């Protein structure tokens, strides 16, 4: 691998005067021997699955397999239509998209893990939002998925993208950072600004515990996908405005790993602590898993 | 370096909700189907550990069924696997077993077809990765990520040497080779992982040449 840290990835882009997405595309070609066209065609196939998943839950209410959750993407989509929201309706649509993907996932529909199934809503929601703004080409969006991949690789290799290993910050936090950095590149920011977007977004997720009710990828996973899509957009705008992560992004990634290591096991995808351990969380667990017994 | 490809971060395309409880379970079912080598008629799934505790919520039952019916992790028909089983006349039962020393996400599958049966103990290790722990009571392990040949044979001198020789002569590189036997000269099973899919004529050559061979089966997950 040609890079382990963000500063190395940024230097590769700056030295060759290309984007981070193009750096990743070249590296993927070198490592696999596949052509640029093949790689981008596979990414586009994944983008199509993302597009289906962002729409499905906004067009009709989707219930999860357990029956615990569902229909929130549809609810939000209907609410947006009356034009009275605090967040600008177009922007709020992004949240509906993120909720939709997560609901499709909980309902055993098809999604793309980005980087995991539990955090699969965030990147698709901002990519579709960016495409629908009409300011960027479809090709630019497909290429930007390579940017997201590069940022995710740094986090996966220097920290973690597993809730069981590093808590929710490693899944939702990583996805938010990937989405923020990717938006900066789509929006014409420099590789350095991409790095700051990652740092800013990741800082805002530090300490987030993985506490799914009943161990299922539903509560609070779906809501966190929705809200963090907003964080990704905001962090991208901050970075494009010139706001910097005073703690260097690589140090933020590093500390995310350290915080994850210090988290007790009950808060790392065991379905024991946090929201899973609340009276209602425990009651819901009973309700789901004792259904059909005795 | 744990991760090296863009597609390990963006991807795979999969049916939710969980890579370990759903995608990994489809892969286990798929391996059981390939090992059975024919349409199943009767299947028993004994769920162990977290699989037993949470299978309804994660759709692990549907995922295992989907796999044994020949579906893949990205098939949108996975949630309807129970109906597909009914349509195809496949009878199935789910039972619970105790965890013991097994990985938390483990299943013991007993599958019967018209002419044969297979017994498979396998675990879902996370991120959609699945691993067989025991096959027909032999303690063999494989993931099916690489093309995998499974030889059932009698323990005879020169067996592994012959496997290596024939595969080498035909240009194949062996990634992993492991033999388990009941006793010296007794029944044995050999697992051979190769880097590329072995051509049918080479499989035939192996069948005709290998000493003490009963059969060769092939597994690869997608």
From TrEMBL, chain A:
Name used for this protein in its record: L-serine dehydratase
PANTHER family on file: L-SERINE DEHYDRATASE (PTHR30182), L-SERINE DEHYDRATASE 1 (PTHR30182:SF1)
Cofactor(s) this protein requires: [4Fe-4S] cluster
Pathway annotation from the record: Carbohydrate biosynthesis; gluconeogenesis
Record's keyword terms, sorted: 4Fe-4S, Gluconeogenesis, Iron, Iron-sulfur, Lyase, Metal-binding
Enzyme class: lyase
Gene Ontology terms, MF aspect: 4 iron, 4 sulfur cluster binding; L-serine ammonia-lyase activity; metal ion binding
Domain of life: Bacteria
Pfam families, per database record: SDH_alpha
Annotated ranges, domain Serine dehydratase-like alpha subunit: 16-276
EC number(s) reported in the record: 4.3.1.17
Reactions performed catalytically: L-serine = pyruvate + NH4(+)
Family classification: Belongs to the iron-sulfur dependent L-serine dehydratase family.
Biological process according to GO: gluconeogenesis
Species per Swiss-Prot/TrEMBL record: Domibacillus enclensis
UniProtKB/TrEMBL annotation, chain B:
One GO term (biological process): gluconeogenesis
UniProt keywords, alphabetically: 4Fe-4S, Gluconeogenesis, Iron, Iron-sulfur, Lyase, Metal-binding
Cofactor annotation: [4Fe-4S] cluster
Pathway recorded for this protein: Carbohydrate biosynthesis; gluconeogenesis
Stretches assigned to the ACT domain: 148-222
Record has 4Fe-4S as a keyword: yes
Reactions mediated catalytically: L-serine = pyruvate + NH4(+)
An example molecular function term from Gene Ontology annotations: L-serine ammonia-lyase activity
Signal peptide extent: none
InterPro entries hit by this protein: ACT-like_dom_sf, ACT_dom, ASB_dom_sf, Fe-S_L-Ser, Fe-S_L-Ser_bsu, Ser_deHydtase_bsu
Family (UniProt): Belongs to the iron-sulfur dependent L-serine dehydratase family.
Family matches, as PANTHER family: L-SERINE DEHYDRATASE, L-SERINE DEHYDRATASE, BETA CHAIN-RELATED
NCBIfam families according to UniProt: sda_beta
Name of protein: L-serine deaminase
Source organism of the structure: Domibacillus enclensis
């Amino acid at each position: 691998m040609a890079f382990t840290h963000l500063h190395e990835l940024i230097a590769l882009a700056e030295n060759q005067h290309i984007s981070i997405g193009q750096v990743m595309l070249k590296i993927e070609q070198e490592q696999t021997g596949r052509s640029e066209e093949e790689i981008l065609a596979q990414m586009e196939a994944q983008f199509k699955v993302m597009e289906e998943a962002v729409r499905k839950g906004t067009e009709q209410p989707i219930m999860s397999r357990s029956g615990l959750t569902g229909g929130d993407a549809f609810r939000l989509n209907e609410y947006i239509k009356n034009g009275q929201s605090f967040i600008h309706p177009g922007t709020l649509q992004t949240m509906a998209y993120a909720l939709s993907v997560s609901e499709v996932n909980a309902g055993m529909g098809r999604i793309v893990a980005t980087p995991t199934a539990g955090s699969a809503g965030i990147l698709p929601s901002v990519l579709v939002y960016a495409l629908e703004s009409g300011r960027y080409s479809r090709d630019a969006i497909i290429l930007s998925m390579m940017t997201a991949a590069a940022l995710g690789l740094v986090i996966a290799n220097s920290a973690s993208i597993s809730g069981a290993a590093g808590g929710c910050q490693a899944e939702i936090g990583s996805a938010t950072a990937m989405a923020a950095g990717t938006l900066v590149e789509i929006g014409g920011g420099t590789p350095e600004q991409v790095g700051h977007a990652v740092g800013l977004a990741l800082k805002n997720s530090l300490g987030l515990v993985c506490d799914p009710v009943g161990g299922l990828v539903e509560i609070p996973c779906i809501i966190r996908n929705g809200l963090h899509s907003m964080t990704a957009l905001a962090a991208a705008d901050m970075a494009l405005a010139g706001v910097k992560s005073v703690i260097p992004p690589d140090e933020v990634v590093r500390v995310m790993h350290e915080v994850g290591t210090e988290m007790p096991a009950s808060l790392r995808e065991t379905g024991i602590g946090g929201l899973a351990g609340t009276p209602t969380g425990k009651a819901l667990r009973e309700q789901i898993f004792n259904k059909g017994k005795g | 370096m744990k991760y090296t490809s863009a597609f390990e971060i963006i991807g795979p395309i999969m049916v939710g909700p969980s890579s370990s409880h759903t995608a990994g379970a489809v892969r286990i079912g798929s391996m059981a189907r390939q090992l059975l080598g024919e349409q199943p008629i009767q299947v028993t799934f004994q769920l162990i550990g977290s699989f037993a505790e949470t299978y309804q919520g994660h759709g692990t039952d549907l995922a295992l069924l989907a796999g044994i019916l020949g579906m893949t992790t990205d098939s949108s028909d996975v949630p309807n696997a129970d109906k597909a089983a009914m349509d195809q006349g496949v009878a199935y039962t789910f039972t619970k077993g105790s965890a013991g020393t097994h990985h938390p996400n483990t299943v013991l599958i007993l599958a019967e077809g018209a002419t044969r049966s297979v017994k498979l103990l396998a675990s879902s290790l996370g991120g959609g990765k699945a691993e067989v722990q025991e096959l027909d009571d032999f303690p063999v392990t494989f993931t099916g990520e690489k093309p995998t040949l499974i030889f059932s044979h009698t323990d005879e001198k020169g067996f592994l040497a012959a496997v290596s020789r024939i595969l080498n002569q035909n240009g194949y590189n062996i990634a992993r080779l492991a033999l388990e036997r009941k006793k010296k000269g007794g029944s044995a099973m050999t697992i051979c992982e190769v880097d590329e899919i072995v051509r049918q004529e080479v499989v035939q050559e192996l069948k005709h040449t290998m000493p003490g061979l009963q059969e060769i089966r092939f597994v690869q997950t997608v």
